[in-house]
Every structure is written in C-alpha cells, then in structure tokens.
From TrEMBL:
Keywords: Hydrolase, Plasmid, Pyrimidine biosynthesis. GO terms for biological process: pyrimidine nucleotide biosynthetic process. This is Amidohydrolase. Signal peptide: none annotated. It comes from Halorubrum lacusprofundi (strain ATCC 49239 / DSM 5036 / JCM 8891 / ACAM 34). Pfam families: Amidohydro_1 (PF01979).
Length: 470
C-alpha cells in the first residue's frame, strides 16, 4: 500500500543538525524519515535536489484582523505562507469593540468584555486562513471576573494568556499577582508585554514639551530600563506564584538580563525576541522615519548582539515577528507620538533572519530551526508542529539557501504597502510552503483555496529544560 507523498533529494534541517534524507507523508502526517531507498512507495514524489527542507515556521506572536492591523486572516496568512510560516498564534482581545484604532472616534476598548466571546469572534473572522492558527486569550481590563473564564479558555485549547503593563489596556502588579496564581493552578502560560507605563508616559510628555518630535528621538521615550523594570516586577510575581512566564518581544540586553536572573533551566521562565530586534538598530529611525516605529523601540548594535547571545544559550528561545500591517499613509505623521506602533514581516522573517543568523553570523541550521519552529511549537503546546519527524504534521518549507534577491514591498501579500527591509539583499529564499502535505504557496503566490488553514487547539505545554544551539 502506498503513501501520498515522498519528499526526496534534499537536505533536511532539524534541531539535531542537517542530514541528506527524505520523508514520507500520508494523510497530512509524516510517517517515515530516511534514505530514499528505504521510504515506502508513494503516489507522488517531490524531488527537491539541491535544496533544503525546513519544518514549517511557527510564529507565536502576530497581529491579524485586530485593532492595530489592516490584515485580514486571508491577507495575513497569505503573507505567512509566502514566507514559510505554517502556523501563527494571534490574539483574542477581551474588551475590543471591533473598530480599528486609526479609524475610531474614541477608544476601541469597552469597559468590560468576555474572553470566550473574543475567541469566538476571532474564529469567525478566520474562515479564510491559508495556514493553521491558534489564539492567545488577551486580558485588557482589570476585572477580577475574567478569572472565572480561565478554566473554560484552557479547555477550549488556548492555554496562554497575554497581559500588558503599558497603554490603556495595561494592568497593575496586584492584578497580575492574582491572575498568575490562577494560571499557575491551571499550569497555563502568562504572556507579558512589559514596559513601565509611568516612565514611558513621563518621557513622552517631556519630549512633547521639548518638541522632540522626530523618529530618532523616539527610543529615548521608551528606554531599555523601562522595559527591564516592568519585566523585573512581572517575573517576581510569576516566581512568587509558580506561574509559567513568557516574555514577548525582548528588545534589549537590560531586559534579557532581568529574565536570565530568574531563569534556572527554562522550565518556568522563557522569552522571545523578534526578527527586527535581531537584525536592525535604532539607526532605522533616521533612515526610514516613522515607518520603522514599533514598541519597544529598536535599540543599539550591542542590544542586537545580546539577542544572539541569549538565543545561543537558550535564555531566549524564540524568534517571532510581532507582525502588524499598516500603510505608508497611516505611518506618515508629523510627530512620532501620533504614529501607530508595529511593523510587518510575516513574509520576510525567515529569509531575513536566515541571512543574518546563518550567513552573517555563522550560526547553524539547528539554531535557526530551534528558534523559529521547534521552540515556539513546544513552548505553546503544539507537539505536531515545528519538526520533521514521524507523527508530526507534514508542514515544511522548500528553501534555497544559495539564491540571493532583494526585499521589496512590491511582493507583499500583506495589505501593508511598505517593508522595513526594503532594498535589503538576502541570500536564502522560500521556494514552496506545504501545510499538512499540501502545497500552499510557491513563487507564484498562494495556490490553495481560502480556508485551507485550521484552528489548532493547543494542549497545556510541559516545559522542561531549554537548551541553546550555536
């Protein structure tokens, strides 16, 4: 009896290294891995001679069809598939009114709301997704009644809860203490955006007073110590409650060091950085102006080096995108504080990070696969994702490590009409993306019907020691 597909002739990239081998796919699952002559007979054969095959990239931090992003699930996941990303985790906002921030007359946040309703709203919006997706339940109001929903949210396959310490939706340390205690009972994961709101607001007000309104001034309004201060408070609360903690978009050495200070082996405290924090510095604000504004800000070359230092030793485990789609027109402002935060990179993250990590810094493919596929899948309870192994979903990327090309927003599948990597030449290109054994995207674009992606319920993740890679 034959299987559906054999993938042969290429080099497999895994967390254990690279190997010249192939694998067999049946009913969307990898059923064998080995040399070509040891694979079962197949109805179809995909010969990827001379190319690499990577696990489908797992991005646990994206903004699609939310208050801050113009991408629908269709356009956002088209960008993901075109960039080798086969699973994304988006956000379900507890009190969001459904309006985009740039289009609303007032606040886009209601006084109260339910997580379960927010989750169902996102699932209704996602019917056009091209890749698989999950959700983080996002708490945006300091209302103790939300704790009563936590059990049902975890039962719905969403074992991660996001909190902010900044913006209009930031919550207090006292509220976090109570929330973490409840999450610890469920063995769920607290996901934190940490910046000290009062420091950032005071420094922003001072820049307004001093007419420091240009994008290069912006990093001084949200300094590294504001990120580190809030992170220090949050991990202290997680440590006191034995709650699993995941710090998103780490941008600075100062913040990473606060995370490292409480880590033992990654079994309770984990963190990520983003592609832009590992590949760009604050010089981008001089070169690109407000197009490059996101929060936290881009930092110094030393901070970029720190991201790689802590990715190597496993203190930071994941590289995400924090993708937010906006237009050039929306980002074009006279004063930086009137600019929406966020940059788009779902389509470019893998080639950009590959070029920086592997080509420029000499890291291994094991390093790349761990940070962009295996670690995010394991961290967030997706055991069938992020690996080329028997029993895993047949999500994979055919990748040419030698092809060079220039990044341009003209290629964007996202609704965003610019790229912070515009004009950057990279070596390494996504040729094809497969989801559960089906070709989803190639160099011509999306090749499946909308709705091919599915909502993936996630199990409560079991965190053991987290290793680094070089």
């Amino acid at each position: 009896m034959s299987v559906d597909l054999n993938v042969v002739g290429g080099t497999l990239a895994t967390v254990d290294g690279t190997l010249d081998a192939g694998f067999s796919v049946d009913d969307g699952t990898i059923v064998a891995v080995g040399s070509r002559d040891r694979l079962p007979q197949a109805d179809r054969t995909l010969d990827v001679d001379g190319l690499f095959v990577l696990p489908g990239i797992v991005d646990p931090h994206v903004h699609i069809d939310g208050f801050n992003s113009i991408d629908t699930y269709e356009t956002g996941t088209a960008a993901a598939a075109s960039g080798g990303i086969t699973t994304v985790i988006n956000f379900a906002w507890q009190t969001w009114t459904g309006e985009r921030e740039s289009e609303a007359d007032g606040s886009v946040w209601a006084d109260e709301g339910a997580l379960l309703e927010a989750i169902e709203r996102q699932k209704r919006k996602a019917t056009g997704a091209y890749v698989d997706y999950g959700l983080h339940a996002t708490v945006t109001a300091e209302d103790w009644s939300v704790f009563d929903e936590f059990d049902a949210v975890v039962d719905a396959g969403i074992p991660s809860f996001k909190f902010f310490t900044a913006y209009d939706i930031g919550v207090s340390n006292g509220f976090l203490r109570l929330a973490f205690e409840r999450l610890a009972d469920l063995d769920a994961v607290a996901v934190l955006h940490t910046e000290d709101a009062s420091v950032c607001q005071a420094l922003t007000d001072k820049q307004r007073q001093d007419s420091r309104d240009s994008p290069p001034d912006y990093p001084d309004a949200r300094p590294d110590y504001a990120e580190a201060m809030a992170l220090s408070d949050a991990v202290a609360l997680a440590e006191a409650t034995d709650c699993k903690y995941y710090g998103i978009h780490t941008s600075s050495r100062a913040a990473a060091e606060e995370l490292v200070a409480v880590q033992e082996d990654g079994s309770q405290f984990r963190g990520e950085t983003c592609t832009h924090y590992a590949t760009l510095t604050q010089d981008a604000y001089t070169e690109q102006g407000s197009l490059a504004l996101q929060s936290p800000p881009l930092r110094t070359a030393d901070d970029v080096d720190a991201m790689f230092q802590y990715l190597r030793d496993g203190s930071l485990g994941v590289v995400s995108t924090d993708h937010v789609a906006s237009t050039r027109e929306e980002k074009a402002v006279d004063d930086w504080w009137d600019c929406s935060f966020g940059v788009n990179s779902l389509q470019t993250s893998l080639p950009i990070f590959h070029d920086e990590a592997v080509n420029q810094r000499g890291h291994s493919y094991a390093f790349l696969v761990r940070a962009m596929a295996a670690a995010p899948a394991q961290t967030f309870g997706l055991p069938k994702k992020g690996r080329l192994a028997v029993g895993a979903d047949a999500d994979f990327v055919v990748f040419d490590p030698t092809e060079s090309y220039t990044i341009t927003a003209d290629d964007n599948a996202s609704r965003a009409d610019y790229s912070i990597y515009e004009g950057r030449e990279v070596t390494g290109r996504v040729k094809q993306t497969y989801l559960r054994g089906d070709l989803v995207a190639d160099e011509s674009g999306i090749v499946v019907d909308r709705g091919h992606g599915e909502f993936r319920e996630r199990e409560v993740p079991q965190w053991g020691p987290q290793e680094g890679h070089v």
